[in-house]
Amino acid sequence: MARGLILGIESSCDETAAAVVERGARTLSSVVASQIATHLRYGGVVPELASREHLRAIVPVVRAALAEANVTLADLDAIAVTSGPGLAGALLVGIAYAKALAYAQGLPLIAVNHLEGHIHAVLLQQRQQMSVTEPDLNDEPALALVVSGGHTHLYLARPVDGTWQYTLIGRTLDDAAGEAYDKVAKLLGLGYPGGPWIDALSRFGNPHAVPFSFAQIKHKVHLGGRAPRTRAATSSPIATLDPRFLFSFSGIKTAVLRYVELHNLRAEAAVRVPRMLAMGRPPQDKDDALALCPPDTLDLIASFQHAVVGDLIKKTFAAAESLGAKRILVTGGVAANQELRARFTAAATRRGLFIAFPTLALSTDNAAMIAAAAWPRLVAGEFTPESLTANPSLALGI
Ligand code: KG4
Ligand code: ZN
Predict the structure, then answer these.
(1) CA distance linking residue 105 with residue 45, whole number of Å
(2) For labelling alongside 74, which of 117, 167, 190, 248 has CA 20 to 30 A away?
(3) Whose CA is nearest to atom 23 of ligand 1?
(4) pTM, rounded to two decimals
(5) Which residues have any ligand 1 atom within 6 Å of their CB?
């Protein structure tokens, strides 16, 4: 293996991404074509539109990633691609292109689980920094919270003989945290994805104005192995997990809906949509925020975020304590949240635990994390057969 160069391709949701990463540790390029503009007006990802946009973007995005890295296909050592979980049609675009490139160039193909990719976003970031004060990344187990639009999962990640093994410790029974952000944002007439808007607006509200709370999940809720009526709960052995580490975000979404109805905020939310679309990006200062939302709505937004972050902290640190984990990795789109970063960091410092996040660009979907996750597998010679296909509900670990 000459330079240890992996081209990563990611197309599981609404981002078409390609990146070239050297030896799982140095990002030579990371190109992300976002489809936000396409989905914004629908308030969420429209799967058919996502596939069409991926088809349009995949070739130019891969070309741009190679050009930015100043390499050609002939310089590569492997092609890595996200094989799931995600939208079937979206995943297939990346997989078909990755397979064709690998076949044409005679390169090994490495399928990567999107969730494993998110965990490696933090590891990649740390390898790039390589601060001497940090514990050796290669032999410490870590508790990883993957918190995104599709997932809120806790894993114990352990390096074993050069590759990584994952044990599922906790997960959401229903909505992912990012999904709750997106649904609450839609309810309030705010942009898609909702996280960055709520993140920006919550800075100007009182987080204690509305006392949202999370009930402790009881055993009987998840007896039988799956929670009823939830898509998110169909793929993992929930009944075997400790209920202290289970999340549920559908309740707070309903509580926000009730609050909106009780306080007659629906009409106001409807007139906000055109203002939000005209603004195009989340507000930067208090005047911007007040131009979009009255103070009581800002209080509602701040209270929602405060409660969600508090619940994530409580369960993550309870799991860390129970497992004796000294290292916590927080990753996924919601890990871009400013309040989440500040409060998780403070909680870890108080307990003397090590905590790490990816950069903001590596928090949301990207392909550098996919190429980084593939590196240990390239070294171990663990390749994926050409029969690879998309697995929309692919689970990670045991
Ligand atoms: O990881 P990601 O890009 O895609 C998935 O794998 O789902 O995460 C996207 C999610 C969306 O729900 C979005 O609202 C949320 O991450 N998000 C945020 C922030 N930035 C993105 N949530 C809270 N605060 C943010 N700053
Ligand atoms: Zn993701």
Answers:
(1) 33
(2) 117
(3) 195
(4) 0.93
(5) 13, 148-150, 178, 181-182, 193-196, 199, 332-334, 336-337, 364-365
- Nearest alpha carbon, ligand 1 atom 18: 195
Report the topology of domain 177-360. Nucleotidyltransferase; domain 5 (3.30.420)
CATH code of the domain occupying 5-136+361-380: 3.30.420.40
CA dist 391 and 111 (Å) reads 11
Neighbouring CB atoms inside 10 A of 264's CB total 8
Distance CA 345, CA 138 (A): 22
Lookup result for tokens 């390239």: 378
Tens of pLDDT, residue by residue, the chain (398 residues): 689 999 999 999 989 999 999 999 999 999 999 888 888 777 778 888 889 999 999 999 999 999 999 999 999 999 999 999 999 999 999 999 999 999 999 999 999 999 999 999 999 998 888 754 555 555 689 999 999 999 999 999 999 888 899 999 999 999 999 999 999 999 999 978 999 999 999 999 999 999 998 877 775 554 444 444 444 444 456 778 999 999 999 999 999 999 999 998 888 888 998 888 888 889 999 999 999 999 999 999 999 999 999 999 999 999 999 999 999 999 999 999 999 999 999 999 999 999 999 999 999 999 999 999 999 999 999 999 999 999 999 999 87
* Residue extents of the structural domains in the chain: 5-136+361-380, 177-360
